[in-house]
Amino acid sequence: MLINNPTGLIALSKREITRFLSVATQTLIPPLISTTLFLSIFGLTLGKRIDLSEAGITYLAFIIPGLMTMQAITSSYENASSSLFISRWHNHVQEVLLSPLSYFEMVLGILIGSLTRSAIVITSVLIVSLFFNPMPISHPFVVLYFAIFIPIIFSCCGMLAALWAEDFNMLTMWNTYIIMPCTFLGGVFHPMNLIPEKIRFFTQFNPMYYLVSGMRYGVIGVSDASIVRCMTVAGILAVSVFCLVVYLFKIGYKLRT
Amino acid sequence: MRNSEVAISIQNLSKYYGKFQALKEISFDIMRGSFFGFLGPNGAGKTTTINTVTGLSNYQEGKVRIFGYDVTSEYVRSRPLVGLCAQEFNFDPFLPLHRMLTYQAGYFGLPQKLAEKRADELLDRFQLTEKRNMKYRTLSGGMKKRLLLCRALIHDPEILILDEPTAGCDLELRYHIWDYLRQLNKEGKTIFLTTHYMEEAERLCERIGIIHEGHIVKIGDKKDVLKDQTLEDVFLELTNGK
Fold first, then answer.
1. Which of B74, B79, B98, B123 would bridge B69 by S-S if both were Cys, CB 3.0 to 4.6 A apart?
2. Has residue A163 got a pLDDT over 80?
């Protein structure tokens, strides 16, 4: 049995969810504000100069899935990294480590908190976006797939960063130097045919490209990459980082002396 | 719980921090229902021993068992049997006391209503009811000590491990905690106590172990350890104190 202590898992998940809900002005409202700004500036003003009529879409519609992906990445990463790092910092992570929760359940509990936050953020971003550009969702199950797997990947990355970091500076490094650049270069705001071919070659090694493309296929039915490849990359990445985090909990990496 | 009369069994336990060996093949058993005092100078290995028993510390050699359950390979079964009252105030600063205790009980599998009832009882027992909706930073030092005890007892463990529980407490609180520990022991709880107060160990414990530089230098029933000496004399003699 993977879950031996469902009550414990519910308690930990509940704690994680309460944690971000209690600071909603920092966790749930900012993604809506930034999405509104991105849609207003890039979508409504600058976007009018970008012609995607060949693909049968507007630029505004094009960036909506990218923004959903970007906000899913940011919220899930921030949630898991801050929760675990702060509990390490104050050493109340011991409350969980002393409990009979299995290492799998510990990671899952933190993950459920991040997934919940991410689900709220993605849904809110989508609702706000539909005010700017009303449109049907092309492939709802594909959207659901990426709305689950993207937060799993980045919640686990957040936990990896939280385990590795010794201070708040180290904690933000991953986001600043790896995640954000890769996300922007992954095609949140631009179709791949607009960038020089030499740079485009490197894009295929950027996992964010597949996540953004997959979400884009789900929302508007158009994608730069094959949807099967996008789903495969997302699935493999999610399972890999999840297993890695569980393993690090098991060996007590920076959790036990 | 396995039908074991040995509550804590430590066999040939060695623990290294890099090249420094903090525990040097220590072995001892603590019997069910006993009140065991574990003494030693600062840095002798008391907290390291506690951390290996509770699973907060990895170790390189030896076996540690709680009522027969290995603390590494059977941690899911061994951990509910132990409550740890840590030395430091390691609480979540953002949670009110009652909610913090309720979550803690939940991790140990207590359903919500039972967890809340248990949290209420313990807050009442340690005179913290008025503070139930406050955060721990608003508490005085003595109150924080009592909160540590509440948290350690929230899941009604068989073994209570106390790492200097009365350090920094005034006399009244110290006596209050002593009375409560005696009562818990009478009810059948096994108690593992580390302290720097010789008087505390002498008054409360029936068995005493002394650790020095990672070695157990003395262990036995209190009367056998003391003979005609005071505990302070025995302690200083064994730990090269002056």
1. B74
2. yes
